[in-house]
Amino acid sequence: MLKIAWSDIYAHHLPPGHRFPMEKYNLLPEQLLYEGIAEPDSFFAPLPVAEEWILKAHDPVYWQRLKNLELSHKEARRTGFPLSAGLVHREIVIAQGTIDCALYALELGVSLNIAGGTHHAFTDRGEGFCLLNDIAIAAHYLLDKQLATKVLVIDLDVHQGNGTAEIFQYDNRVFTFSMHGAKNYPLRKEISDLDIALPDGANDMTYLTTLRKTLPGLVAEVKPDFVFFQSGVDVLATDKLGRLGMSIDGCRQRDQIVFDLCKQHQLPIAVSMGGGYSPKIADIVNAHTNTYRLAQEIFF
Question: Which Gene Ontology terms describe the biological processes this protein takes part in (predicted)?
Answer without folding.
Answer: epigenetic regulation of gene expression
